[in-house]
DNA sequence: CTGAAAGCGCTTACAG
DNA sequence: CTGAAAGCGCTTACAG
């Protein structure tokens, strides 16, 4: 910057003001400065700027990677958030595997980031308190049990559940199963509510993030209700197990059993046979909205906490069909046996 | 730091040296300083440190997100790199959608990052030259046409191709098809080589990242060789189209047609029916190795450029089977028609 | 409209 | 083994 000032024949402070635009500069001066910056290929030093102004224009993305159980939508959410931040002149810094404890306290204390985005928020998430204590502004993607004072964006599970259940009930399904991931209890709660409002029965089980877990879950679902005709899943890693277990028992999807996923990205939904019907919010949207919330806070917005829920869209693909008729059900086991003997 | 020094009764320089360990400090002094830091909950300011030392301990991850065509393995690679960097005391900063041009030049000039990792490297990637010119140390994940002077890690496509072709030829397949993504030409080249070494025929087509593109690609593959019995794909987004187009023509997978993917993560491979046989390197490994390479350079290593290729593993699932016998082939069309009329 | 100067919180020669 | 001081490259009151 000193070089620029010299070349333009002005003081460094004038260069700085020209750069920030925080005070009027005469046209000719401004032009000389701009020319000098171009000639020298000057870019302001981020550290000097950060040190003095106490603003880094960096935000942290807290991303608890329990390897293996990564939701495939996470990448889209991250990229959405990052693109958006970048457009607004901010950088996104990845903090993976940072849990509450010294790590986070240290990181937050370094003054490196102006704020944080917290992904994968659990119901009782100790990271939240650490951030509050550290005085780091943040917004959550997902939300904890009591988000009271904190901005967040999340999937609107109530709306998603109504969409999912609505579609299935319309198709004549009355006995539904739910497959959760054992971590986020919101989908199940929402589904229970939606089912009871729609007058449908719902049984629910959780499963880990594996094919085998899905197989086991299917068995448990059938034990809970041998006559269920549709399954709603919030556990993309267990779904293949469910589908195969159903196939093994001769239940064809979608003729004998409908299945639908919440929060599975489109290109993944296309991989199953039949392709998976989904209710799915735009993960990129959720990420972008969280960035917006946070930036508003960083710019001094003191409005009460905002909580933005994003509804999903129903994407009909091929894994749901009208419920088998009572007649089908009656003869079901015979038909299934026949198929199995082929 | 001034507070710490006061509380410990020493000078700030002593505190700084105690922190960095770059010169001997008496035990009692060190203890007083450490106690003071604890009492005050002190964490060094990252900007002051960066400004003075010219090292930020931040590395950029250049991640060109052409939305929609994100490889699902990318997330694992990113998380692998980030975890690893974090363990080594570095931060990973996401630069999505940053292409060659002013953006990159600016970012590189800010002095914010000590180095960069470049993902999604194309054969002639203008970002490379920009980084070289800016004097930012970097390593590539993937590599361009002429990586001469630059460190990189990548999938070992030659080895992967040998594995894939080897398995198929062992199973009696002699007429193979390849489905590329139209961006990375290496898989096709490697496959051609592997096929010719194994004495198998290979026809190749490219497709965009969509189901429809996959359908079209299957048609073109059959035009190129109506008798192919196996397909190797490096295009996870088009694979569903291939599978469905095959199904529409009555070709059962794997009995009539084997299919195999390169670079598809395990939990995605489980989603198809039958589950997809893959040849797949550990994306997390590739990411970690790139971090290691870069950090070595940052620490002054001047060894000649290193180029690390990671071989894939063959994961047999269910999408490949022995080639149909000549007899099967002969009666194939009749059999297919029969199935279609059912 | 512009300049001279203090200071952000560290690191690191220089001196003892 | 320890301290006093310069300086990294900016921003921003203060002064004109």
From TrEMBL, chains A, B:
It holds the Pfam family LacI. InterPro entries: HTH_LacI, LacI/GalR-like_sensor, Lambda_DNA-bd_dom_sf, Peripla_BP_I. Residues 321-342 are annotated as: Disordered. PROSITE patterns: HTH_LACI_1, HTH_LACI_2. It comes from the Bacteria. The keyword DNA-binding applies. CDD domains: HTH_LacI, PBP1_LacI_sugar_binding-like. Signal peptide: none annotated. Residues 1-53 form the HTH lacI-type domain. Keywords: DNA-binding, Transcription, Transcription regulation. GO terms for molecular function: DNA binding. PANTHER family: LACI-RELATED TRANSCRIPTIONAL REPRESSOR, LACTOSE OPERON REPRESSOR. This is LacI family DNA-binding transcriptional regulator. It comes from Kineosporia corallincola. The lineage of its organism: Bacteria, Bacillati, Actinomycetota, Actinomycetes, Kineosporiales.
